[in-house]
TrEMBL record:
<dbReference type="Pfam" id="PF13499">
    <property type="entry name" value="EF-hand_7"/>
</dbReference>
<keyword id="KW-0963">Cytoplasm</keyword>
<comment type="function">
    <text>Major calcium-binding protein of the Golgi which may have a role in calcium homeostasis. Acts as a non-receptor guanine nucleotide exchange factor which binds to and activates alpha subunits of guanine nucleotide-binding proteins (G proteins).</text>
</comment>
<dbReference type="InterPro" id="IPR018247">
    <property type="entry name" value="EF_Hand_1_Ca_BS"/>
</dbReference>
<keyword id="KW-0597">Phosphoprotein</keyword>
<comment type="similarity">
    <text>Belongs to the nucleobindin family.</text>
</comment>
<dbReference type="GO" id="GO:0005085">
    <property type="term" value="F:guanyl-nucleotide exchange factor activity"/>
</dbReference>
<keyword id="KW-0677">Repeat</keyword>
<dbReference type="InterPro" id="IPR011992">
    <property type="entry name" value="EF-hand-dom_pair"/>
</dbReference>
<dbReference type="InterPro" id="IPR057576">
    <property type="entry name" value="NUCB1_N"/>
</dbReference>
<dbReference type="GO" id="GO:0005509">
    <property type="term" value="F:calcium ion binding"/>
</dbReference>
<keyword id="KW-0964">Secreted</keyword>
<feature type="signal peptide">
    <location>
        <begin position="1"/>
        <end position="17"/>
    </location>
</feature>
<protein>
    <recommendedName>
        <fullName>Nucleobindin-1</fullName>
    </recommendedName>
</protein>
<dbReference type="GO" id="GO:0005794">
    <property type="term" value="C:Golgi apparatus"/>
</dbReference>
<feature type="compositionally biased region" description="Polar residues">
    <location>
        <begin position="436"/>
        <end position="447"/>
    </location>
</feature>
<keyword id="KW-0344">Guanine-nucleotide releasing factor</keyword>
Length: 455
């Protein structure tokens, strides 16, 4: 487990430290906890690479002999060429899994942006991820380890600063919402709310003295209340060994922050309305930074035994002034708050514009849907009429019939043969077919009755 933290610390830009001697009984009885989450979006990949490298004896030996500068510069990465084939195969598989995960993230992002049916150039898109080599997506090479170390180092160096900026925006948003709420009240209720707010602030400040983190008073308080030991018998080396919970010879950031719990409980209680737990986490981070600044001499983000013992010999170790909490410091200025509020107004304006655009698009889609429904109804009626016509009995073969069932005949053209029958358009179906035509000359009487003799 010591190597697990050592590799993790190395990959995060931390130096190795010489382990102190431990009683064998303690090493056998304790099971060190798993390394804490770094907060990086590729933390799982980072931890899995560490676990695989830990299994190679050659790499383990080189890591223990390396310093922080060797690790950061990429010198250690070249040792990857000498690890066993079995380890390299596992690392190749880890990289392929990570590339597949990143591709899924890119696809999900494009789907969320409604960029569907778009040809994706994964090689170019993967360039935005700095913790692996996108040109080679199948094997884990020395370049991948070098990029992983450099990227994790850079990201974690900015982690605290990013956290402080997020907390500042959180505090400004709280104040902005409070002021907006006061504007919505009438004069009397506004005075009552302001008085209530001041009362909560006053109540929050009523707490015991907070000792400066890393001071003699703070460590002795932990020694007495947490460890259950006599404060008059305080011993820095024993204290260090007690709170090096994973027995790796150093106090990491999580082990240091655990020492501040008693001080934080003096100020923050989750059951109290006036106590903000996010402020407590900011307080914890500020305390850890204070200790690292004064105790971490080689700036490797770890405190070894030698550094810890030297810190107890400093003049300010007996610092009795106490610690200024978050509410006693100015997190933001009024000018910063005004810029923040102007930014919120701009964001709200943009959101309003986009909402109006979406509303219009929704109306257009609704109108289009109405048109489509009308067309669909027309098509359905046309199909129904065709089905009805097909189901009706067909008329006998002959002359076409009109809507009322009457026969329709076309007039005989002028050049029709004399013997051809001609029917008037308005002739009744029952009329005899030998009726004389209007334009036909009436035959003579002798022609009509040839048997009558004229004398």
């Amino acid at each position: 487990m010591h190597l697990t933290w050592l590799i993790s610390a190395a990959l995060l830009g931390l130096a190795t430290c010489v382990p102190i001697e431990r009683p064998k009984e303690k090493q056998e009885e304790e099971t060190p906890p798993e390394p804490s989450d770094t907060g990086l979006f590729y933390h799982r990949y980072l931890q899995e690479v560490i676990n695989v490298l830990e299994t190679d004896g050659h790499f383990r030996e080189k890591l223990q002999a390396a310093n922080a500068e060797d690790i950061k510069s990429g010198k250690l990465s070249k040792e990857l060429d000498f690890v066993s084939h079995h380890v390299r195969t596992k690392l190749d598989e880890l990289k392929r899994q990570e590339v597949s995960r990143l591709r899924m993230l890119l696809k999900a992002k494009m789907d969320a942006n409604m960029e569907q049916d778009v040809q994706i150039d994964h090689r170019n898109l993967l360039k935005q991820f700095e913790h692996l080599d996108p040109q080679n997506q199948h094997t884990f090479e020395a370049r991948d380890l070098e990029l992983l170390i450099q990227t994790a180092t850079k990201h974690l160096e900015n982690f605290d600063a990013d956290h402080h900026n997020e907390f500042k925006r959180y505090e400004m948003m709280k104040e902005h919402e409070r002021r907006e709420y006061l504007k919505s009240l009438d004069e009397e209720k506004r005075r009552e709310e302001e008085a209530r707010f001041e009362e909560l602030k006053k109540k929050h400040k009523e707490h015991p003295k907070v000792n400066a983190p890393g001071s003699q008073d703070q460590l002795k308080e932990v020694w007495q209340e947490t460890d259950g030991l006599d404060p008059n018998e305080f011993d820095p080396k024993t204290f260090f060994n007690l709170h090096d919970t994973n027995s790796d010879g150093v106090l990491d950031e999580q082990e240091l922050e655990a020492l501040f719990t008693k001080e934080l409980e003096k100020v923050y209680d989750p059951r109290n309305e006036e106590d903000d737990m996010l402020e407590m986490e900011e307080e914890r981070l500020r305390m850890r930074e204070h200790v690292m600044k004064n105790v971490d001499l080689n700036k490797d983000r770890l405190v070894n035994l030698d550094e810890f013992l030297k810190s107890t010999q400093r003049k300010d170790f007996n610092e009795a002034d106490g610690w200024k909490t978050v509410e006693e410091t100015q997190v933001y200025s009024e000018a910063e708050l005004q810029r923040f509020e102007a930014e919120l107004v701009a964001q709200e304006t943009e959101l309003g514009r986009r909402a109006e655009q979406l509303r219009r698009q929704h109306e257009e889609l609704q109108q289009r849907q109405v048109q489509l429904d009308a067309q669909k109804k027309e098509y359905q009626q046309a199909v129904l009429q065709m089905e009805q016509r097909k189901s009706q009995p067909q008329p006998e073969q002959g002359h076409p019939a009109g809507p009322g069932g009457e026969l329709k005949f076309q007039a005989q053209p002028p050049h029709a043969a004399p013997g051809d029958h001609q029917f008037l358009p308005d002739s009744h179906p029952g009329a005899p077919d030998h009726a004389p035509q209007q334009n036909q000359v009436e035959p003579s009487r002798s022609q009509q009755h040839p048997e009558v003799e004229i004398q």
